[in-house]
Structure formats: structure tokens, C-alpha cells
Specification:
Elements (H helix, E strand, L loop, with lengths): L1 H12 L18 H16 L13 E6 L5 H12 L3 E6 L11 H9 L4 E5 L4 H9 L4 E3 L7 H15 L6 E5 L5 H12 L3 E5 L8 H11 L6 E4 L2 H5 L4 E4 L11 H8 L6 H4 L7 E4 L11 H4 L6 H20 L8
Parallel strand pairs: 1-2, 1-3, 3-4, 5-6, 5-8, 6-7, 8-9
Helix pairs in contact: 1-2, 2-6, 2-13, 3-13, 4-5, 6-7, 6-13, 7-8
This protein binds phosphoric acid mono(formamide)ester (CP) and norvaline.
């Protein structure tokens, strides 16, 4: 046991290229090795929740600017930062709307003078890119219409904990395959050697160009991405079945249309039975029982949704330590 622990801690840090000062706007901003290093560091921090962590980000302040509501992302970053000895400044709604009171560039330049890193939750992705381009401190996407990369880190950490390794597994993402969670999960997955099946109707399918992008990302790692119209075929034999809400924040006007198209893609016990007997069910939350997932599935024995939610904090702590330090002083 002692040897295993030693190996794990060495592996957590030793091969990691430095991420200090980098932005994290989408999962593919990081290489395969960088994602795997953050996951290893997350596992290390999770296994060693002790007083030593209180000095890791002492004196650092994380700014959090949210245009949309949040439970998990906000609280997991705030508690994570506190556990690492740092502080958080949170602004939401009218106090902070990227690009409405001033340009994203001006907001980024100003905030970079006050804080050491910034988490931004926006509607559109483009103002976030402009913000990050002008920021002189790391900018982290806390969810945009295009991407939710912090969720993807927690998802892969959860899958790795359950299966011991990532490479060679297959995830079926069923539902709105064009949304932020689907895209970030798929990018991170193929970079870690996990094949992705999308199960979605034409109205909610992954774009051909995005599938080609995933295939390029996944090829060196032995992973691919495929789109299925038939949810049963998408789920057959997979290790992980994943879904998210049918209507994302900001798209409320499309709620009825989305529900009409996606009803056959709801995750029920009947559909889940096509996956491997050892398969797990995942959902980023918040969830709607009786819509995208049945209560029997999300509250059933294959569901790991609360481990996922917990792992948001561990994965983001690792991300913050990687972006804000040179990892010196971490006992490895
Ligand atoms: N999964 C997730 O990002 O949840 P919140 O919207 O509550 O932050
Ligand atoms: N796709 C969802 C994820 C919520 C965490 C949304 O954007 O609302």
C-alpha cells in the first residue's frame, strides 16, 4: 500500500508540464498529458485533505464573475479556494455582464490588477475569449454556451476512480449532443483515450466538423467519436451513460421543441440495460427527473452523480494549484 501511494504521488506531479499562468476556456486547451496531470493532482489533493493545503494558495484571490445561476460551480470553487488558503470575490448578474457596461477587454484588464485568477460564467463564448485574451491572469471558463471544461475534469476524475483507468473505455452521451457539457466531456474524453458515442436526433446532433475535430484529438490516444440516431445503438456495450438537461440556460424559449425531439432519448432503466452490466450513469446536475432521466436511474445503484458533484471541487482545486503555482512546496 505504501509503495502504491508513493507511486501515485510521484506520478501526480513528476511528468506534468507547467500550467502556470495558462487559461482554461475549453477542455482541448490542455493536452492529454496536461489533463491527466490535473486529474492525478486532483486525486492527490482529494486523498490528503489536511492542513498542509491551507498554505498552497495563501494570499491569492480568485475572482468569480457569473452571468448565469450556479450551485455547484460557485460553491465548489469557493470552498476549494478556501481549503487551499485563498480568498474569493464573487459578482453576479447586473454587477457583471461581460461586454454590457464596458468591453470584455477593459473588464479583464481591470480585474487582472485585483485578483490572481478569474472564473467566468457567460452566455456567449466569444466575449469570454476576448476577456481571456486581454486578461493577464489565468481565466477559467465556469460554463459558456460552448463549453464547460471544469465539469469535464470532474467527470473524468469520477470515471477514473470508478474504473481505475480511462483509456479504452466508451462513454455514450445521450440527449442534446451539441451543448456545452457534451462538447467539453467529449474533448477531454478522447484526449484521455475514451471513445465517445453521441445519441441524438438530427436537431440536437454533434456537428460533422466537431466530430472530425474529436477524431483528430482522439486518434493519437486510440479513441474516436461516433454519432448515432438510435439511442439503443449508442448505449449498447458502453461503460458510461451520460446525459444533461434538454434545455440549457439561456435557451428557455426552445424548451418545448427540445422536449418533443428528445423524449426518445430519455435515460430509463430499459435504455441503461443495453450498456455493460458494470456501467455507470452520469449527469452534471441540475437534473429533471421524468425528463432527461428517470428517477429510478438517477437515484439507482449505477448512478454516480453525487460523486461527480463532489469531484468538481477536487478537480478545480487541482486546476487552481496548477494554474497559480509552480507546484513547488507540494510534498511529492
Ligand atoms: N454542473 C454545474 O455546473 O452546476 P451549476 O450550474 O449548479 O454550477
Ligand atoms: N447544459 C447545461 C449545464 C448546466 C450545468 C446548461 O448550460 O444549462
Amino acid at each position: 500500500m505504501h509503495n502504491v501511494y508513493k507511486y501515485t504521488t510521484m506520478y501526480a506531479i513528476a511528468p506534468a508540464p507547467s500550467l502556470q499562468g495558462r487559461h482554461f476556456l475549453q477542455a482541448s486547451d490542455f493536452s492529454s498529458a496536461e489533463i491527466r496531470a490535473v486529474l492525478s493532482l486532483a486525486g492527490y489533493l482529494k486523498s490528503r485533505r489536511s492542513g498542509e493545503q491551507l498554505t498552497m494558495l495563501r494570499g491569492k484571490t480568485l475572482g468569480m464573475l457569473f452571468e448565469k445561476p450556479s450551485l455547484r460551480t460557485r460553491v465548489s470553487f469557493e470552498v476549494g479556494m478556501t481549503q487551499l488558503g485563498g480568498q474569493v470575490m464573487f459578482a453576479s448578474g447586473a454587477e457583471f455582464m461581460v461586454g454590457s457596461r464596458e468591453t470584455p477587454e477593459d473588464a479583464a484588464r481591470v480585474l487582472s490588477r485585483y485578483v490572481d485568477a478569474i472564473v467566468v460564467r457567460t452566455h456567449a463564448h466569444e466575449p469570454l475569449e476576448r476577456f481571456a485574451h486581454a486578461a493577464t491572469v489565468p481565466t477559467i471558463n465556469g460554463l459558456s454556451a460552448e463549453a464547460h471544461p471544469c465539469q469535464a475534469l470532474a467527470d473524468l476524475l469520477t470515471i477514473q476512480e470508478r474504473f481505475g483507468a480511462l483509456a479504452g473505455l466508451t462513454i455514450a452521451y445521450i440527449g442534446d449532443a451539441g451543448n456545452n457539457v457534451a462538447k467539453s466531456l467529449a474533448e477531454a474524453a478522447v484526449l484521455c483515450g475514451v471513445t465517445v458515442h453521441f445519441g441524438a436526433p438530427a436537431s440536437h446532433s454533434a456537428k460533422e466538423s466537431f466530430l472530425a475535430h474529436l477524431q483528430r484529438l482522439g486518434k493519437p490516444h486510440g479513441a474516436t467519436a461516433r454519432a448515432f440516431r438510435n439511442p439503443t445503438r449508442a448505449v449498447r456495450g458502453v461503460d458510461v451513460v451520460y446525459t444533461d438537461v434538454w434545455t440549457s440556460m439561456g435557451e428557455e424559449a426552445l424548451k418545448e421543441r427540445n422536449a418533443a425531439s428528445l423524449i426518445p432519448y430519455a435515460i430509463t432503466q430499459e435504455l441503461l440495460a443495453y450498456a455493460q452490466p458494470h456501467s455507470i450513469f452520469m449527469h452534471c446536475l441540475p437534473a429533471h427527473r421524468g425528463e432527461e432521466v428517470s428517477a429510478a436511474v438517477i437515484d439507482g445503484s449505477q448512478s454516480v452523480v453525487f460523486d461527480q458533484a463532489e469531484n468538481r471541487m477536487h478537480a478545480q482545486k487541482a486546476l487552481l494549484v496548477a494554474l497559480l503555482t509552480d507546484l513547488r512546496g507540494i510534498p511529492v
